Structures are given as structure tokens and as C-alpha cells.
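ok so for the tutorial part 2 we go from a plain amino acid sequence to predicted C-alpha cells. step 1 is just haveing the sequence, like this:
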Amino acid sequence: MNGKIFYGHSKPGESTEKWQSLGDHLAGVANKAAVFAGKFGSADWAWNAGWLHDIGKLDDSFQAYLLCCNGLTDPDYDSSAHGRVNHSSAGAALAELLFPDLFSRPYTNICAGHHAGLPDYHADNTGNAALSIRLQEGRNNLERITGRYENYLSEIKKDIKPPDYVKNHNFHFWVRLLYSALVDADFLDTEEFIDPERKALRSGFKPVIELKEMFDGYMEKKRAASPPTKVNRIRAQIFDASVRAGSSPGGIFSLTVPTGGGKTLSSMAFALTHALKQEKDRIVYVIPYTSIIEQTAAEFKSIFGPDQVIEHHSNLESERETPQAQLAAENWDAPIIVTTNVQFFESLYACRNSRCRKLHNIVNSVVILDEAQLLPPQLLFPCVDAINQLTEHYRVSLLLCTATQPSLPKINAPREIAPDPGSLYQDLCRTDIEFPADLSKQQTWEEIADELAVYDQVLAVVNSRRDCYDLFKLMPENTIHLSALMCGEHRSRIIQSIKRKLKTGEPVRVVSTQLVEAGVDIDFPVVYRALAGLDSIVQAGGRCNREGKLEKPGLVKVFVPPKQAPRGLLRKGEDTLRSRLALSDLDPQNPEEYKNYFREFYSKINDDGRNWLRELLQGQSLELSFRTAGNQFSLIDESGQQSVLVQYHGSEKLLNELRHTGPQRRIMRGLQRYTINLSRRDFEQARQNGLLEEISLGIWLWSGLYSEAFGLDLFGQGWAVEYFIK
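step 2 — the prediction. this is what the C-alpha cells look like for a chain of 726 residues:
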């Protein structure tokens, strides 16, 4: 090599003597990646990927690029490169030479994609980003470094085979986990060289045994301060059963507990005990809605301390994140992660390195899937398949935690934790759920408003924003409106106000969409629920007599509103419940009813995602479409929606910064709490009517009326349309 020195990374402002050699970088990445992938029996594969991924940096053009970026030149590197140089494809092409047939495919995917993301094999959807084209580029690149890369081949481990569990149908999952191990190792090794102070912040996490001691101390004080009510006694039984179950071998578990049964703390008790007994690395708590994730994270932070719990969701304000928390959110190396369904499942099918980087840290963890019935039916099969893959092959123990336990198709049978769920539901019954005698008889909003006005404290839950608005207009003064036409910050303030009024016994009437049904800890004596799916009705009932303080059961009254639930999943839920009620006298206090309900509900779903999975990620040739799959896999269909910002308490400063500096990450994360989604049709009409201002490219601010009473004044414009609910 004529005495040339090849660099992996430069350090701005430093002489080349202090730069990182390419050999040091490849060795560092290979070592780290092997440790990460060793947890799923793939250390040698990750080791090889580490040595291959940046081999293209041996090219003179890349070395000249590094020098040029630092204002230096070197006659040994003859290149006219002035921009970024492709250095990823050479490692992919070299893998083709070193390994036979399909054994090269893991390396070609992850090496070619370690910066740009896992590619599609064919160019149909992604053009020049396709692996088939990148490989041809890599072969050309490889010719230019012949005589150089041979010195590194002695590090490559030959004659290795994939783990026995890797088959055609789950090859994509294994590749994505290998990719995660490589890209996180690459990030961390680069960070260690470029910014050692930043690396130092990735420490200070407590071991599981200390976290469990903190949790046990917290629960001991909490139990001592809790009154000896029937509800608290049952909660204690559930908690103790969860602790006992934590000593079980790993797998899939279920915790079927009525609303208000203390499942949040019981599930954490199971997770900590299980993590300690089975030597798990961390606990990942997955929650369906950002509207409730903050209260769960706040509770855990009060127990374990803010530095031990990482929130990872879109509503998090950067000002609330410590530097340590920001780093841990990148790769989930903290002991307790609280995140959303969207973040968790979309990452498991992602192609981008920023989303996939954390995946290897899900391996050997305890995952709590809260409100399991809210998995999206249109992607149910890929979600269930991911659960099965994690628990069968990646040492994950997973807990399905809900009051309305679904019968998920194709899932490996879970082990129930709760002691005799049927008896629990009877013993913890605090409500009478009244279904309409005649499901064909609709009530007018005027009739429902008259009924609600009789009660001093009552909650009415309806199926859409429009329904919420129409009923609210007919209610007595001081009624509270709650819907997703209010931004997150507004809703949080309203919910806190509701809690205060309930606690002090003040009159409080609330009309809400279903956003209150999952995890919002409010306790009304009377709840009205518009006809919908059984799970929605039971969840709404969980806001009634939650603490069991009433002398007699609270009233949950189901009514038939003036119009059916919106088309889609809500309508399918309503139709399924109508069918179940027609077959027999349904007992909502019997958890077996939920399994029967969900079996019928899932049977009505036209496409559960299995064809999508088969067509893009399970081909016999392993010529897979990682990028297309990652782009298409979305738990929330945003294609028909547009986000808009609103001016509400606290947003003014951030909006001014946005106007002057543009959409920086810190600003946009802070503004998540001041965002509302509109349908595309409503967005376009508002824009045409001059009610929206584009304050930065593609970022819109609502300039119409925003009311403290009901949020964004969409319906005040007289638009009679159907709306998305939240």
C-alpha cells in the first residue's frame, strides 16, 4: 500500500496524527456489534459486518474527501472529490465475493444500507437506491481498492451459518436485528472517537436489583397508606400474583384485570421480578396513546428517579429531557423505556438506521404491551408475528396487559397471571352496564342532553368529534368539552380540571370522544356511552365508580345515538357488538365475552396485513423490499390527515422561534403538544377560507378561532362532515 495511511474518521481542528485509522474503526465496530448480536446467537455475523461495512473508505476518493473537509491535501490521494463519497457499497460487493449465494445476503443488505437505510432489492420502487444497483456500484468501487482490502480479510470469520431459527419467513427480522447491532456499534464507536464527553453521558443507570428495591420500598409505603377497601384488597391480590408469576420462565404472559385493578403497578412488579430472576436487561413499557404515556412515565419517574426512565414519543418536549435521556432515547440502553405502540412496532419494521438502531436492545428484555386490544387490525398479523419472533428467538418475555383481553389470531398461547380472572371481574364489579332494550331505536342529541342534565357529575363518551360538538352545544352551562380538536396541552389542562372537580365533589358534566377511555384516571358516578364496540364500552365503564366508593354500583348506560359510528373500525366494532347482543344475553363482566367478541371482530377485517408481509418481506429468493415495507408500515394512517399548529398557552415562544429559525428538532418536538390533525378535506377548505397560515415550508398554523371551551372551531364554520376520532 506504499505506506499510505487510511483513515476512518477525521477530527475537526486536529492534525491527521490524531485521526482515527480505518483499521481501528472497523475493529471497534466489529467488537461492539458482536457483543450486541451475541444476545441472539449471531456474534460472528455482526463481527463480519463490522469489518466489511466501511471497507469502501480505502478508496482514494474517500480519503481525499476527508482531507478536503479539513482543508488539507495529500499527493498520495489523487481525487477530485468535493462532495460525499459512496463508501457503503464496496463492503456489500466484497461480501458477495467472500460468501456463497444467499449467505452473503445479510451482509449486502446491512452494509449497503448502514447509512441510507435497508434497501429494496429491486429498483421498481426505489430506483438507484435498490440493492441490485448498489451492488453494481460496489463492484466498481471494489476494483479501485484491490490490493488494499486483502489485508483485512484475515479478520473475517468463514464457514458460519445463520442460527437454526432463521428461516425464509423470518429472515427479514433477523437481518433487521443484525442491522441494528451494526449501526448502533457504528454510531457508538464514532461518538467515542469524535465526542468522548458525549459518550460519558451514556452511563449512570442502576442495575435491575436496585430498581426492584426502590420499587418494593415505594409499594410498601403505598400499601401502608391505602385504606382497607374491597378494591384495594383485590388490587393487592393481583399485585401479589404478578410478583409470583415473575419467577416463571420466559415467554408470553397475559394480565387480564378489570379497569381500576391496578394493572400498571402490578405489571411493573411482574416485570422487575422477572427481569431479576431471568437476568433481563431492561423493561419496555408500550402504551397505545401519547395522551396517557406521560402520566405513566411520571409515575415511574417518581418511583425510580427521572434518570432511570426514558420516555420516547412524539409529544416529549426537549426541555424536559436531560442530555442523558436524549442519548438513551437514541438506542434504548436505559433500564426502563416508556414508549408508544407506534414507536415500538413501526421500529420493528423500519428501514432507517435512526429507527432500527435501538432494536438490538429489545433483545433479552421484558416488554409490557398495555391495552393489547388496540393493536391495529389492518396490521394485526405483522404485529403478532413480531411478538412471536421476539419471544421465540430473541429472549423477550412479553406481557399482554388489558381489561378487555383479545383473542389475538396466530399468537403463541399466553400464560395468564391474574388469579381466576372470571372471579376477579365479579368481585371487582363496580358498575351496572345497561344496554338499550331496542338497538334499532335511536335517541336524539336533545333527548340525551336532557338525560345528562339530571346528573351533577356525569361523563358522556361519543364516537366522533362532530357528535361531541353537537351534544356539547345542547348541554347546560359549564359543561366540559373534551376532544382531539383540542391540542394535547389543552386536553391535559382540561383533564386536570375534571379531576379537581371530582375530588372536591363539585358539579362536573363532561362530553368527550373516546380519548378518555384508555388510561385516563377519572372516576364518575355515571357514564353514558354511545353504542360502539364492546371494548370501547367496557373501557368507558372503567371511568365509572373506579375506586368503588359508591354504596351501589355506578351506572354505565349505553345509548343508540342519532347516527352510527363512523365507517371503518368503529363501525365494525358496533356491528360486532350488535351481533353478539342478538345472539345471547351478553355479560360484560365475563372476560370470556371479550375473546368471543374479538374473534368475531377480527373475522370482519378484510386484510390483516399477512399479504403485505408475504409480498414484501418473505420471498423465497430473499430479494426483499425493506425500504418499501418500512415506508408503508404505519399504525396510524396519516395519508388522509394534515397536522396544524394552534396558538395556545405556552406555544407563542416556540411559534416565534419557528418563524425566525425554521423547523429545528427542539422546536418541533416542543410544538407536538400544540398540534391538531385535520382531515385533508377540512384542511383544504380551511386553507381556501384563509384560516391557515404557512409559517414555514409545509408547516401550517391555524389562524381561525380557537376556543377555550371546545378547541379549534372547525364546526363553527357550518361544515357538516364526518370526522376522524382519536
